[in-house]
Amino acid sequence: MLRTHRHSRSKGRKAALAGTFAVLAAALVAGFTQIAPSPTEAETVADGETVQTQQTGQWLTGYWHNFENGSGVMPLTEIPAEYNMVAVAFADNHATLDGGITFNLASSELGGYTDAQFRSDIAAVQAQGRKVIISVGGELGHVNVTNPTQARNFADTAHQLMQDYGFDGVDIDLEHGINAQHMSDALHDLGSRVGPGLIVTMAPQTIDFQSPDREYYKLATDIADILTIVNMQYYNSGSMLGCDGQVYSQGTPDFVAALACIQLEMGLRPDQVGLGLPAVRSAAGGGYMAPSQVVRALDCLETGANCGSFSPQTPYGPIGGVMTWSINWDATSGYAFANTVSARLGNPGGGQPTEQPTEQPTEQPTQQPGECTASAWSSGSTYTQGDRVAHGGREYQARWWTRGEEPGTTGEWGVWTDVGAC
């Protein structure tokens, strides 16, 4: 879609969002008192001279593995055409330049895929009108951009990689903290070298937008003039507050829509907001949603249809698109994610989901309740770290604050630890 300024929403919605952030501050970031610029103020940042031209459709972004983790490997040319944005995961720390990045193809893990083949395949994918970007970070990636020298080194090396491999831009997926000021300086420096064709994406975690003083929140505001899309990771999250101040549990369309609303009301244009979900259940520790449920979240945000308990006051129209972790994981399901979601993108309300919507977890405990001493789990109760509950004949212990997340459904890395049968 064309990148146009989003019209500011009603004062009532702005007031509601401000009230929500007061709640967020009290619940999550004690002591915060400042609210970010309103949508109207943020819109003045971008102008026709500096903002890159967006594609005419929505993005379906997928991460491509430069490693083997059990999901399988593939050359870039095997990526289905439904993915019009490919994020190569991941860049490496530069050996000598602090804050700099480099890229090393893991040929031995990729079945002998050579550097020459990789470069040729980037060009082939781009010749089809698709974009290929380099992602920086991931769960294990640590690139520090916290001072002017590191910012300059990041911009220098990112630009060199773009020139060397032909990447269209960068994805910021640093999950261990960023400095908004210096990363903004680095990305604007890169933008001044590349020009309006630069792709800049980011994949923050849900906690990163729960308060305006969070660094990713500030970064998105600071680089709104060059930002292509924010693909929030709506998984491995636990429960979070939506833009209406209500608590939502991951793994539901309500969770995705209510949290995406925060970005849509903070001043980003709808085309700068994307929804990031795991392609299959195995791709994440929690927060998986069937592709049909991702479609429901899109419908709710864009047209106001298929909403659950959360519904936007005014539908936003087409948003930026959807991201998944990952293309490789999607391949294990025959690309069910790409096939379902791409059919929906650019076609709001065009067709019913092929899977029946369900707000309930698809996995149910197989054991009947036994004699348990812990209190029974309640969907309306709040639990904190160390609390124990009984559910389905088993006892569970909370790893962190949670409400509404059913024990036995959050996976190995989710909020509930299975203590054993009771």
Automatic annotation (TrEMBL):
<keyword id="KW-0326">Glycosidase</keyword>
<dbReference type="InterPro" id="IPR017853">
    <property type="entry name" value="GH"/>
</dbReference>
<feature type="signal peptide">
    <location>
        <begin position="1"/>
        <end position="35"/>
    </location>
</feature>
<dbReference type="Pfam" id="PF00704">
    <property type="entry name" value="Glyco_hydro_18"/>
</dbReference>
<protein>
    <recommendedName>
        <fullName>chitinase</fullName>
        <ecNumber>3.2.1.14</ecNumber>
    </recommendedName>
</protein>
<dbReference type="GO" id="GO:0016787">
    <property type="term" value="F:hydrolase activity"/>
</dbReference>
<dbReference type="InterPro" id="IPR050542">
    <property type="entry name" value="Glycosyl_Hydrlase18_Chitinase"/>
</dbReference>
<keyword id="KW-0119">Carbohydrate metabolism</keyword>
<dbReference type="Pfam" id="PF02839">
    <property type="entry name" value="CBM_5_12"/>
</dbReference>
<keyword id="KW-0378">Hydrolase</keyword>
<dbReference type="InterPro" id="IPR011583">
    <property type="entry name" value="Chitinase_II/V-like_cat"/>
</dbReference>
<keyword id="KW-0732">Signal</keyword>
<comment type="similarity">
    <text>Belongs to the glycosyl hydrolase 18 family.</text>
</comment>
<feature type="compositionally biased region" description="Polar residues">
    <location>
        <begin position="375"/>
        <end position="385"/>
    </location>
</feature>
<dbReference type="InterPro" id="IPR001223">
    <property type="entry name" value="Glyco_hydro18_cat"/>
</dbReference>
<dbReference type="InterPro" id="IPR001579">
    <property type="entry name" value="Glyco_hydro_18_chit_AS"/>
</dbReference>
<feature type="region of interest" description="Disordered">
    <location>
        <begin position="343"/>
        <end position="390"/>
    </location>
</feature>
<dbReference type="InterPro" id="IPR003610">
    <property type="entry name" value="CBM5/12"/>
</dbReference>
<dbReference type="InterPro" id="IPR036573">
    <property type="entry name" value="CBM_sf_5/12"/>
</dbReference>
<feature type="compositionally biased region" description="Low complexity">
    <location>
        <begin position="353"/>
        <end position="371"/>
    </location>
</feature>
<feature type="domain" description="GH18">
    <location>
        <begin position="58"/>
        <end position="348"/>
    </location>
</feature>
